[in-house]
């Protein structure tokens, strides 16, 4: 749902802008100026992020109260109601219905991203959890590609059929609503939250077959006992705690750059990006389709790259690689004004940028808060990461059309600044996290940033860190 909602608005953009104009002309007898239409269009795209932020903030309470499976099932009704609004918007001559539908899609995506990830990882055996976790990014890429594929003019990207394109989220929600009841609830939730050992055993048997899973159950019981003595820190406590300030700064830098590296601008406003890159009008839809296929095919093999290389190397290589592509893209777009025969190079460079992003930062960034924070800070870390993610997506959706209008092809230089800054930050301020526990990573952060001249000033902070490590080691 998340991936589909990001890419699906590109194809019917002209039809929706026309609906906005006709609605205001018919209802208020007012002909909107171009900047007014662009502002309404940007808000229609970006309101999805407001819903996503709201959904991600309430997701934790919902999945704890109703369970992972039940939360996913109920969440489908939000998407179905949004789809109904999308289907009726053209007939009702109301672009406001599209806005409300996008907002509901955002809530659905915010909840499902959290609930689905937790449900999937908790249902998987320990030896498969890493691979299963990466499939979240793969299916987001599948959603993006599906939105682009259905948006071509041969399928649903026409003046008559575009409401069905925007309402397609409802069909995927119906698919999950009819199939998910046949799957069991998360065994970990049943045992740790509900205390139902019998239901947990039954769920494990359905998921894993007839095998000995007593070791996993014992680990869950030990975790339940240990969690009772660990205090989970709030977001404000995380911000105020000096012992984890570098981890917090790392989360802020990573997730801000994830949205402002330019990759989601390609999906939100791919036609504007490709026009700025000099691609011909008749090739826009198929170029956008190619970007989705490139990301999907790359993300399928992403987990093999992650397992074989260090995550610090992947992030540094990824962001510096994207910086190089953005420099080349700006040069080629500038030169094609006088040399039209090099316009196809811009398309190839965009594909390379998407390939670099999909193979490196895309699969590494999402699980980062769970890796660099110890258990007591993880919940607050994920909350901050989700807030930055959705807020950055909203800002990008609102401002990018204006940036393209005023800066034209120099808009890529803004993304270049963020990618280069993040790459250098990774190189000099972040330790390698591969095959390390959160405690080892915390100690490495402390070693990298503890200057000898500040040792006395940090003595109290080191004592706090020592206590935290002792508590987590017991856990």
Automatic annotation (TrEMBL):
Spans through the membrane: 39-59, 71-88, 103-121, 128-150, 162-183, 246-268, 288-306, 318-337, 349-368, 380-400, 406-426
InterPro entries tied to this protein: GLUT, MFS_dom, MFS_sugar_transport-like, MFS_trans_sf, Sugar/inositol_transpt, Sugar_transporter_CS
Topological category with respect to the lipid bilayer: Multi-pass membrane protein
Cited Pfam families: Sugar_tr
Entry GO MF terms: D-glucose transmembrane transporter activity; fructose transmembrane transporter activity
A GO cellular component annotation in the UniProt record: sarcolemma
Ranges where the Major facilitator superfamily (MFS) profile domain occurs: 1-434
Source superkingdom: Eukaryota
One GO-annotated biological process of the protein: D-glucose import
Reactions listed under catalytic activity: D-fructose(out) = D-fructose(in)
Matches recorded under PROSITE patterns: MFS, SUGAR_TRANSPORT_2
Keyword set, alphabetical order: Cell membrane, Membrane, Sugar transport, Transmembrane, Transmembrane helix, Transport
NCBIfam families in the record: SP (TIGR00879)
Sequence similarity: Belongs to the major facilitator superfamily. Sugar transporter (TC 2.A.1.1) family. Glucose transporter subfamily.
Database matches in PANTHER family: MAJOR FACILITATOR SUPERFAMILY (MFS) PROFILE DOMAIN-CONTAINING PROTEIN (PTHR23503:SF54), SOLUTE CARRIER FAMILY 2 (PTHR23503)
Name of protein: Solute carrier family 2, facilitated glucose transporter member 5
